[in-house]
Amino acid sequence: MSNLETAQAFFDACDTGKGWAECEAFCTSGATFSCQSQTLADIHRLDAYTEWMKNLLVPLPDGKFEIKGFAEDTDRGVVLASAVITAIHSGEGGPVPATGNKVSADYVYSMEFAGGKISHMTKIWNDAETLKALGWA
């Protein structure tokens, strides 16, 4: 499987809420995670992020992810995925009762590879605007 195919499979599993049980096969042991956002400030491992995504879909049960683009930099062993999440806070959970608010938020994953698996992922995302749109901030 190529890095691009691995990244696509990881994205599909992670962003549909499959959690670490499904995502682990695409990642190195101890794969790390980073994101410059308050919401994800305490998450530093990719396994924890995939579980966070799984839990996010509880209050956002209709969450849909639209891929805008996938690109591979073979010289640097990096795959970039650009996407948009669209969802309505209609489910139980989250920091407040269901608001019925809809969000459409852009984000990018920068996935670094080692030995054909993701060793680190950075998420680029404006969490403040997303939380505000949902009525969570």
Main features:
single chain, 137 residues, alpha+beta, five-stranded mixed β-sheet, 4 helices, 5 strands, 26% helix
Report on the architecture of this protein.
This protein is an alpha+beta fold. The chain has a five-stranded mixed sheet. The model has no long low-confidence stretch (mean pLDDT 97). It is elongated. Helix content is 26%, strand content 38%. The protein is built from four helices and five strands. A hairpin with a 2-residue loop joins β4 (102-114) and β5.
What's the layout of helices and strands?
Layout: H1 3-14, H2 20-23, E1 27-35, H3 46-56, E2 64-73, E3 78-88, E4 102-114, E5 117-125, H4 127-134
Parallel strand pairs: 1-5
Antiparallel strand pairs: 2-3, 3-4, 4-5
Which residues form runs of ≥5 with pLDDT under 50? none
* Fraction of residues in β-strands: 35-45%
Our Rg estimate from Cα atoms comes to 15 Å
Largest sheet: 5 strands, mixed
Mean pLDDT: 97
Order of helices and strands: HHEHEEEEH
Please bin the fraction of helical residues: 25-40%
If strands are numbered along the chain, what order do they take across the biggest sheet? 1-5-4-3-2
The strand count comes to 5
Number of helices: 4
Calculate the terminal CA-CA distance, rounded to whole Å. 41 Å
Structural class: alpha+beta
Shape: elongated
